[in-house]
Design goal:
Largest sheet of chain A: 6 strands, mixed
Structural class of chain B: mainly alpha
Strand content of chain B: under 5%
Order of helices and strands of chain A: EEEHEEHEHHHEHEHEEHHEE
Distance between the termini of chain A: 45 Å
Helix content of chain B: over 70%
Number of strands of chain A: 12
Number of helices of chain A: 9
Shape of chain B: globular
Structural class of chain A: alpha/beta
Number of helices of chain B: 14
Strand content of chain A: 25-35%
Oligomer: heterodimer
Radius of gyration of chain A: 19 Å
Low-confidence stretches of chain A: none
Low-confidence stretches of chain B: none
Helix content of chain A: 25-40%
Radius of gyration of chain B: 20 Å
Order of helices and strands of chain B: HHHHHHHHHHHHHH
Chain lengths: ~260, ~325
């Protein structure tokens, strides 16, 4: 449904992305992984229309993305940036409501249908008790849920989420990943940037591993997360489970030891 | 935490207070005039003194205060929302100082005496030029911070040019004329000034019409706003022009009247749940209300020389602003 071909992006003479292809099917959750600075966030921004590629093309359902108006594009693709840049302490309810604006004319107020969607998402994201609270009084985990709710009420065909679980505790990480998963079950698609390889292996249908602005590997999680790719991209290798009381918490990987 | 007032109630309240203040303003002045008699006279074929005072002096003065105050309040709210910064003022992007420079140039070269419309026109031109320079300096795709920095630079430069003209002024009389003009006053305004103020103000308001939603989305961050369909370049261009026109024509007619555009949106923001789109109309009404009240106050103050209204707004506005900061210390703005 979403296709990108040969995407390039430069900042000055620095190459951020070099000829990256991407394909996303309906109902699919695609994980973008790779070390810091690999170009994951930039790729997501290009797909979200926040940045314009220096070369390459993006198409949605076979139509070039440029043929869509800004509003059409905003209705179909929602973007959840990594940094929360909320300027004003709006109440949770009003902030979530803003997610409906791409569907409304400038003079229109949210109608009963919009209200129903907003209510459903507020329940889904467990924000009922917080709906009147100003955004700046919420905890990090609560803020992340509000921002996700804002993107979900748009009911986008494609949700682009940039590290939505960064700085969240384990339970909230699972909450957010489950919500993304539900979105895919409803026949919509998600592209999510993740640093947690374990989460990416469990939740994503497919992974695309980026390194230095190019695709190193792409495919099923078990194909992508193999020994060679982990070594090349992250300089890590899988470790043996520890045999002590902390065994359930053993790190699945360790720094690569190049003995040879 | 529901706001105690709904949006409609707040607007109605501000509107009612504004009407009341405008009525009071018509009654205030060095001559006490019976309003009914003045009204009757003003409709007569050959109006008497009371009628003339009402239609030729008080009415234009009140109308200018209303329009200029509304522009300052509205543009303050627009700028704070556009720059995502509660400390932004309508003059931040050069409009006010540009207008002052334009007007001072007219005063300095003695052009102002030639015809009444030269001074406001020079001011408008100055405002447009300064704002355009800020826009060009900041570049098309820059963030708020670059815009603010460009604004600070251009403001400093226009002020330096004003100082230079004061410095080089041929006579003490010219210096005084320029200095007094810059203090900001609504005294001695005629209907001519009102007609000069109107087009720019209306055009500015029209440009800002229905931009509230985009400003709401901008409050979510520039990237989010872009991804939600906001044409940021167009929004910025449009609002710059709106502020240049509205504030430019206001300052060109009244001189520099500070703090209204900064304080009014700031004060009203908590009452509308901090939402930019809901802040615009109340800020316009509040700005008009505050300027009319300040202008009534300067007429009532027992002083040999009438205190200029720009001096009063700054005198009251600055400590008030400090109080706001102290009260909100430790809380995010």
């Amino acid at each position: 449904m979403l296709n990108a071909e040969g995407l390039c992006f430069y900042r000055g003479d620095q190459v951020i992305l070099d000829e990256v292809d991407l394909e996303l099917g309906r109902g699919e959750m695609l994980g973008l992984i790779g070390p810091n600075g690999a170009g994951k966030s930039t790729l997501l921004r290009l797909l979200a229309g926040v940045l314009t590629p220096d070369a390459g093309s993006i198409s949605l359902d076979g139509r070039p993305i440029e043929s869509l108006t800004r509003r059409e594009r905003a209705r179909r693709i929602a973007y959840l940036p990594q940094l929360n840049q909320i300027a004003w302490p709006l109440s949770v309810e009003r902030l979530v409501e803003l997610g409906r604006l791409p569907h409304l004319e400038p003079w229109q107020h949210p109608g009963p249908d919009d209200r129903a969607i907003i209510e459903r998402v507020i329940v889904q994201t467990d924000l009922l008790a917080l709906r009147q609270r100003p955004f700046d009084t919420l905890s990090g985990g609560e803020q992340a849920r509000v921002l996700l709710a804002r993107a979900l009420v748009t009911e986008p065909d494609i949700l682009l989420a940039d590290e939505p679980v960064a700085a969240l505790d384990p339970a909230h990480q699972l909450d957010v990943m489950d919500l993304l998963s539900d979105h895919c079950d409803a026949g919509k698609s998600v592209i999510v940037v993740l640093h947690d390889l374990t989460l990416s292996a469990h939740y994503c249908d497919r992974l695309q591993l980026l390194l230095d602005g190019a695709t190193l590997a792409e495919g099923l999680p078990e194909e992508v997360l193999d020994e060679d790719n982990l070594a090349d991209a992250y300089a890590i290798e899988l470790s043996e489970p520890e045999e002590n009381a902390l065994a359930p918490f053993s790190l699945p990987w360790r720094r690569l030891r190049r003995s040879d | 935490m529901n706001p105690a007032l709904t949006q409609r109630q707040l607007n109605l309240l501000l509107g009612a207070l504004l009407l009341l203040a405008a009525g009071l303003s018509l009654l205030t002045g060095s001559e006490a005039i019976p309003l009914l008699q003045a009204l009757r006279e003003s409709l007569a074929e050959r109006p008497g003194v009371a009628g003339l005072i009402l239609t030729e002096l008080r009415l234009p003065r009140t109308a200018v205060a209303l329009i200029a105050g509304a522009s300052l309040g509205l543009c303050g709210a627009l700028m704070q929302s556009l720059l995502r910064n509660p400390l932004a003022s309508p003059g931040l992007i050069g409009s006010a100082n540009g207008a002052a420079l334009g007007a001072v140039v007219c005063l300095y070269f003695g052009l102002a005496g030639a015809a009444a419309f030269i001074l406001p026109l020079g001011g408008m031109l100055g405002a447009l030029l300064a704002t355009f320079t800020v826009y060009l300096l900041a570049g098309r795709d820059s963030g708020s911070l670059t815009l603010i920095l460009a604004g600070v630079a251009v403001n400093a430069f226009t002020l330096a040019l004003v100082s230079l003209l004061l410095n080089l002024a041929p006579s003490p009389y010219a210096v005084q004329e320029i200095a007094l003009w810059m203090l900001g006053s609504l005294a001695n305004l005629s209907r001519n000034e009102l007609w000069l103020l109107l087009p720019g103000s209306l055009l500015g308001w029209l440009l800002a019409w229905r931009q509230g939603r985009a400003l709401d989305l901008l409050g979510l961050g520039e990237e989010t706003a872009l991804s939600m369909g906001v044409d940021l370049t167009n929004l910025r261009r449009r609002l710059f022009l709106a502020v240049a026109l509205a504030v430019g024509s206001a300052v060109a007619v009244t001189g520099a009247i500070g703090f209204i555009g900064l304080v009014v949106p700031h004060l009203l923001r908590p009452l509308v749940g901090h939402q930019p789109s809901r802040l615009l109309l109340p800020s316009a009404l509040g700005g008009a209300l505050l300027l009319i009240c300040a202008d009534i106050a300067v007429r009532l103050l027992p002083a040999q020389t009438e205190i200029k209204v720009g001096v009063l707004t700054a005198l009251i506005g600055a400590p008030f602003f400090v109080w706001l900061i102290v009260r909100n210390r430790g809380r995010s703005l």
